[in-house]
Automatic annotation (TrEMBL):
Naturally occurring in which organism (per UniProt): OM182 bacterium MED-G28
Annotated signal sequence range: 1-22
Pfam families: Creatininase
Superkingdom of origin: Bacteria
One GO MF term: metal ion binding
Entry's Gene Ontology BP terms: riboflavin biosynthetic process
Cofactor(s) of this protein: Zn(2+)
Record's protein name: Creatininase
C-alpha cells in the first residue's frame, strides 16, 4: 500500500506520459540561444549580426558604470527587430578608456576598465572572423562610446576589403553615435550647451532614464562639478525620461537610415 501511494504521488509530480519541450525564446541575443538554435536561424536566412560595443567607465555619482552597455543593448535590440533576420552578439564592454598607470581619462575613477586600442582592434577582428565562420554575411559594428568609433572603422574597412569577393560585409554604423542630433533637440527645448555637457550631464542622463531608469541613482543627481572633480560635465538635474525617449528615437532613426543605405550597396 505504501509503495502504491508513493508511485501515485511521484506520477502526479512527474507525469511520465507528458514530455517537456522547451520552446525557442523570443530573443535576438546570441547568448540567450543554444548553438543549434543559432545554426537553424542562419540556415533559415538570419545572416545579419550586430556587434555592440560599449565600455565600463565612470558616469558620475548618479549613473552606473555599465551605462553604455544598457544603452547599446536596448538600441541593438530595437535595430535587430526592425531589420528582421538579425541577431546580436554579446556586447563588448572592455574598450579603451585611458591610460592605466599613471591613470588618465576615466581611469582616474574607481571601477573603470581600460584596454589598449590595439587590443580592442584585435577583439573586434576576431569577433567578426568568428561570426563569419558560422555563416553571417552582414556584420554590423555599433558603438555607444567615442573611443570605439575609430577602431570599428579600421576593422570594418580591413575585413570588408579582405572578404569583398565572398560577399561578406562589415559595416561600421557611425550614426548611432551621432549625438549632435539629440543635442540640437535639447537646444531647441531651451537647454544650453553647458547643461547638455560632454559626459554624464543632461544628454547622457536623459538617455539612461528612458532606457534603464533603475540604473540611475536619482538621490545622487546634482549639477556637475567638472570632469576633474566628480566626473560630470553638464547638469543632469534637468534630465527626464521623456527627453531621453526623444533622443533615443532620433539616434535610432539615424542609425537605421545609415544601415539601410550601407546594406543596399553592392
Amino acid at each position: 500500500m505504501f509503495k502504491k501511494c508513493c508511485l501515485i504521488f511521484l506520477t502526479v509530480l512527474f507525469p511520465l506520459s507528458i514530455p517537456f519541450f522547451a520552446q525557442t525564446p523570443d530573443t535576438v541575443f546570441l547568448e540567450e540561444l543554444t548553438w543549434t538554435e543559432v545554426r537553424s536561424a542562419i540556415d533559415n536566412g538570419t545572416t545579419t549580426v550586430i556587434v555592440p560595443t560599449a565600455g565600463t567607465e565612470q558616469n558620475g555619482p548618479h549613473m552606473v558604470l555599465g551605462k553604455h552597455k544598457y544603452r547599446i543593448n536596448a538600441g541593438a535590440e530595437r535595430i535587430a527587430r526592425a531589420l528582421d533576420n538579425t541577431l546580436i552578439a554579446p556586447a563588448i564592454t572592455y574598450v579603451p578608456e585611458g591610460d592605466i598607470d599613471p591613470p588618465s581619462g576615466h581611469m582616474r575613477y574607481a571601477g573603470t576598465i581600460s584596454i589598449p586600442q590595439s587590443v580592442f582592434i584585435e577583439v573586434l577582428e576576431h569577433t567578426a572572423r568568428s561570426l563569419k565562420q558560422h555563416g553571417f554575411t552582414d556584420i554590423l559594428f555599433i558603438g555607444d562610446s567615442g573611443p570605439n568609433q575609430r577602431p570599428q572603422e579600421i576593422v570594418a574597412r580591413q575585413l570588408s576589403s579582405e572578404w569583398e569577393s565572398e560577399g561578406v560585409k562589415i559595416l561600421h554604423i557611425s550614426d548611432w553615435y551621432k549625438i549632435g542630433i539629440f543635442d540640437e533637440y535639447l537646444l531647441s527645448q531651451g537647454a544650453s550647451y553647458d547643461q547638455i555637457g560632454t559626459h554624464a550631464g543632461l544628454r547622457d542622463t536623459a538617455l539612461l532614464l528612458a532606457i534603464a531608469p533603475e540604473r540611475v541613482r536619482k538621490e545622487n543627481i546634482s549639477p556637475g562639478k567638472g570632469s576633474d572633480i566628480d566626473g560630470v560635465s553638464g547638469d543632469p538635474t534637468i534630465a527626464t525620461a521623456e527627453l531621453g525617449k526623444v533622443g533615443f528615437d532620433l539616434i535610432f532613426n539615424a542609425a537605421m537610415d545609415q544601415i539601410r543605405e550601407l546594406m543596399a550597396r553592392d
